[in-house]
Design goal:
Strand content: 25-35%
Order of helices and strands: EEEEEH
Number of helices: 1
Helix content: 10-25%
Number of domains: 1
Shape: globular
Radius of gyration: 13 Å
Structural class: alpha+beta
Largest sheet: 5 strands, antiparallel
């Protein structure tokens, strides 16, 4: 995880070799009340958010494009598992 002087949120570091690949899918309304509890810096083209709600969680990936946004999410899992995935993502151990 990198935090620069100008940015308040972390940046994802380069992915490590042989890291697990996360399965990304189109968003679906699985949790009625969900909120981002952590996110990466918006200065990068790809922004990640750790979303939690109702005792469940997932990671949202948004690619900022000239014509809009491309959003994908991981499967819903326990908050503990999602936080472990979040830590792996930030450190380059997952992508």
């Amino acid at each position: 995880m990198i935090l620069s002087d100008e940015c308040l949120s972390p940046h994802v570091v380069l992915a490590q070799r042989d890291r697990p690949r996360l399965e990304w899918q189109r968003p679906y309304p699985v949790l009625e009340r969900v909120r981002p509890v952590a996110w990466t810096c918006f200065c990068r083209a790809t922004v990640y958010e750790l979303c939690e709600g109702g005792g469940r969680a997932f990671i949202r990936r948004t690619v900022q494009l000239d014509g809009g946004h491309d959003v994908h999410e991981t499967s819903v899992c326990s908050i503990q598992e999602a936080r472990a995935i979040w830590a792996a993502l930030l450190s380059g151990r997952a992508r």
